[in-house]
Design brief:
- With 146 residues, this protein is an alpha+beta fold.
- The chain has four helices and nine strands.
- The chain has an eight-stranded antiparallel barrel.
Length: 146
């Protein structure tokens, strides 16, 4: 009789432990899966080096970044500065549409304003042009500078 009571107590303890583990597992899953992504405008802040340029699916990086030195820095005050051959230094203002992941660049250089759909993958951002067939067929790949 005593062994039956011990076996029953053991089953109850195992069942209780399984219930606690299940609750812990569900809490962990819900906590991590409900985590909100960082706002787009916070993700873009920092300095990014231009890695690749594609036009109509063709790699034209050599033409647009021949010395592998182009970069752009987005500052938290809404300003930006960029530099590198062959286009040189540029400054201006930027805004972000957090809902649509759209970056608007208002350049101080005439006729150089642009709008981009941006996606992030860790320290890499991919920009696809918006608003004109040529721009819509242009894709820029940037990597966050450390």
């Amino acid at each position: 009789m005593a062994s039956r009571t011990i076996a029953t107590q053991m089953k109850i303890k195992v069942k209780t432990m399984n219930n606690k583990l299940t609750i812990l597992l569900l809490t962990t899953i819900l906590t991590t899966s409900c985590k909100q992504p960082e706002n787009f405008d916070n993700q873009i802040i920092g300095t990014w080096s231009l890695e690749k340029v594609y036009e109509y699916g063709n790699d034209v990086t050599e033409k647009h970044n021949p010395k592998d030195e182009r970069w752009i820095e987005f500052k938290s005050n809404g300003s930006f500065v960029s530099d590198g051959e062959p286009f040189g230094r540029n400054t201006g203002r930027w805004t972000a549409d957090n809902d649509n992941l759209v970056l608007n660049i208002d350049s101080d250089v005439d006729d150089d304003d642009s709008e981009w759909k941006v996606t992030f993958d860790n320290d890499q951002s991919t920009w696809t042009g918006i608003g004109h067939p040529r721009k819509e067929n242009t894709k820029l790949i940037h990597k966050r500078k450390k």
